[in-house]
Design a protein that fits this description.
The protein has 107 residues and is mainly α. It has one domain. Helix content is 76%, strand content 0%. Helix 2 packs parallel to helix 5 and helix 4 packs parallel to helix 6 (86-94).
Amino acid sequence: AVEGRESLQKLYHLLEAKGFQTRMEGVALLQDLCKTNPQLICTNIVQIFDYFVLRISDSHKKVKQKALDVLAEIIGLLEDALNPVMIRLVEGITKNLNSKDPRVHAT
């Protein structure tokens, strides 16, 4: 339980960091936690996605691209656990449909 709390605190800290590289580390950590500890993610899905959804529409296109790529992967890993955050995810994704960056738009 302590290890899970520490992992979540680290994740939140990275996802809300000022530096784009640190935010990218947070996205990568979420991806890793979804693979190695999906129960932790599923149990805390709403709180985690309060932070993660912001990265889907990040002002830095590299962070945004990474977040969208990771989202595509973790949808398959988390499946039904995403139900409580689905509306927020769709809203975040929809904002990218008008992106001028072809890679972001395509993702």
